[in-house]
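Lecture notes, unit on binding sites. The following record was shown on slide 14. It pairs a sequence with zinc ion.
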Amino acid sequence: MRYALISDIHSNLEALNAVLDALLKERIDQYICLGDIVGYAADPNECTEIIRQVAETTVLGNHDSAAVDRTSIEGFNALARTAISWTADTLSSKNKKYLESLDTNMVFEGDLVVHSSPSDPTSWRYIFSVDDAKMEFQHFTGRACFVGHSHQPVAFVNSKNRVVMDTRTSLDIEDENRYIINVGSVGQPRDLDPRASYAVYDTDQKTVEIKRTEYDVEVVRTKIVKAGLPRFLGDRLLAGR
Ligand code: ZN
């Protein structure tokens, strides 16, 4: 089976469409969304509707949760809060109901999918370092856990209880190792590469590939400004930060 793993779309319709276009050439069997469909950019309804149609499974992100009042916005910075209130006012009741229905984690082929971290999916912890990853490996049992949330694609590989960070874009999944894999962000990458990020997991070939796709950032910036959202939310997309 070939799985497409997409995360942190953040209402960026142009990035989402570019990624789905690129994935058409990848012979994908199932699409899995790792959450944060909404928040930051100007197309929350369009992105939610597309994900509802395309994704076999979707887990809840912190921005999705905040937009439907399941997570307090206290932990969010001022820009994110502004975007969340705008998103909550803009989302249709049908799309809100869909976001409300999402679970925080799911398992496919024995692997875990969660937006932030396996240790406590609703405290929205980040996995940035090897030390963070070491702790998280104790909180799931399968071979791999796929996450989003930091918007930075990276893998943590646990080989004989030694954990290393691996930033290569092509990863062989070895039977004797365990993995935490961040697939990066479709709609707001923060690794200084503005191209949309996503992953293709081939369970027969036992490979995970992190892929990047360009999209029209200018269109998204214009929409953000027109919607009355903070200008910086558009500017940051140019730099991928
Ligand atoms: Zn996010």
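Take-home: The mean pLDDT is 97.
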